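User: Please run a holo structure prediction.
Assistant: Happy to. Please share the sequence and the ligand.
User: Here you go; the ligand is 1HE.
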Amino acid sequence: MNVEARSGAHAPLLVRIEGPVAHLVFNRPDKRNAVNDALLTAIGRFFEAIPDGVRVVILSGTGGHFSAGLDLSEQKQREPEQVMRHSRGWHAIMERMQFSGIPVVAVLNGAVMGGGLEIAAAAHVRIAEPSAIFRLPEGKRGIFVGGGATVRVGRIIGADRMTEMMLTGRSYDAADGLRLGLAHYLVGEGEGLAKADELAAEIASNASLVNYLIIQSIARIDDMSRADGLYAESLSAALSQSGADAREGLAAFLEKRKPNFR
Ligand code: 1HE
């Protein structure tokens, strides 16, 4: 299905489905894929009702940039209540993306800044190209982050490093991003989508319940006490190891063949 045809080539978000993989492409190249309300809403709508058969999502941006963050031209003077509601709207959509149960792979190049980095941090697998620049420029714009960075970016690079990053407005390049965990892979320029396709095929071949549990359980257990985390791990193990997929995985290993999961 090609939703692009339905929503028009100028839609802020292009959606293309190829077998089990949905490609979501930020499509505001003239604005460096800055996230306006229309783009954010389109991302939210997709994750609210992921089409049947989709097992992995790949996020990327057109025009050599992932995203330059919040569209600052839409940010007229706002009352505290409006800012609060807007930020909570970002949180709701980022949560939906992180916890939909469908793994998300992000291809990062050019600007991965502000809200763009917040979106990337809600993805589960991040591939950087050498042009990627990671930055939280909010402090330099006279504002604080509001799209989930304190929780997600802070967990990836640590609260201490995020504090310094915001205070100084520094940029990290792709090699830094790999070292710090902002990216899991660093590939050549223009090679990110091919790597994403390769990883998506690998991820899609897992049992969908196991992908679901990996996504749901690990991040939540990270929020729990040690005792609660271990208990939740056992529950997740019990859920996964009693089903048909576990039988198939075990049988395939013993029969020296590839498993064929649901
Ligand atoms: C934008 C935006 C934007 C570009 N909102 N319009 N994010 C930032 O503070 C990053 C702001 N952007 C930049 O620092 C630079 O644009 C880039 C380093 C990303 C790219 O530089 P460059 O030289 O390739 O492009 P440019 O000429 O700066 O920008 C091209 C156009 O995109 C230009 O518009 P034009 O009409 O003059 O052509 C820019 O105005 C426009 N553009 N970035 C609006 N962000 C949930 S809270 C999250 C809070 C945040 O994310 S704050 C961080 C915002």
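The two ends are 22 Å apart (CA to CA).
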